[in-house]
Structure to design on (252 residues):
């Protein structure tokens, strides 16, 4: 289990992360979601061991220090020597070229001629030489090779995105960051909502206990998708999970 325990990160009196506690178990597929500057990339930097927290610690259970070889980290923008080839990089770490081919990378190509997604895959391929148990991906960018590897990887995974919709089919659990704090950490299904739109004249006092909006002559009642209200009929619309996140977890 990869664990963050009471993690804080402060840079020049700016608190980037605060009181972060989370566990990533083998087999977990977690989506880390939040707005721009919510702290997603910094959290991955700390979980991977690339950056040290200002307070708190990250450990792999049963070990006193973080073994970075057990963690494959694919950054949002990989920094690679553009004059080299992927084969050069693999030789440098005395690795296996097979992982490049598995991820659709031509070992002889010049890195300067590759796309961002291909550079991310090179980073992953280099990490696979150490048989990592955890995979951290900062934005998956609709890359089919990364998605396929993601789904087949047997260790614990966490992937960031500003949109839950983009990674919905890849994950089972969601962590939402808002201004450096974890505000949600549960299964993705709990973010599934629907709206029932009814005429205002049918809006009774017992409905005021529900979350609702008034839209002209209509009332829009927000409910979990599996929730029902007896004797209420109206136009039903499924809510995009990203809209539910904005409404309930990313408000000031």
């Amino acid at each position: 289990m990869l664990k963050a325990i009471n993690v804080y990160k402060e840079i020049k009196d700016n608190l980037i992360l605060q009181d972060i506690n989370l566990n990533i178990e083998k087999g977990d597929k977690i989506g880390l979601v939040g707005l721009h500057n919510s702290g997603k990339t910094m959290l991955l930097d700390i979980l991977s061991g690339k950056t040290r927290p200002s307070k708190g610690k990250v450990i792999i259970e049963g070990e006193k220090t973080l073994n970075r070889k057990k963690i494959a980290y694919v950054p949002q923008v990989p920094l690679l020597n553009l004059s080299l080839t992927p084969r050069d990089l693999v030789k440098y770490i005395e690795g296996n070229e097979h992982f490049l081919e598995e991820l659709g990378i031509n070992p002889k190509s010049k890195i300067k001629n590759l796309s961002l997604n291909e550079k991310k895959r090179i980073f992953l391929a280099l990490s696979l030489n150490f048989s990592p148990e955890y995979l951290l991906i900062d934005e998956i960018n609709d890359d089919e090779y990364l998605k396929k590897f993601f789904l087949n990887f047997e260790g614990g995974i966490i992937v960031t995105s500003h949109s839950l919709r983009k990674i919905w089919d890849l994950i089972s659990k969601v962590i939402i960051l808002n201004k450096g704090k974890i505000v949600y950490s549960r299964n993705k299904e709990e973010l599934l909502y629907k709206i029932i739109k009814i005429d205002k004249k049918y809006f009774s006092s017992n409905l005021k206990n529900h979350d609702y909006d008034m839209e002209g002559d209509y009332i829009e009642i927000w409910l979990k998708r599996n929730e029902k209200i007896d004797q209420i009929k109206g136009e039903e619309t499924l809510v995009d999970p990203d809209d539910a996140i904005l409404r309930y977890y990313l408000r000031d």
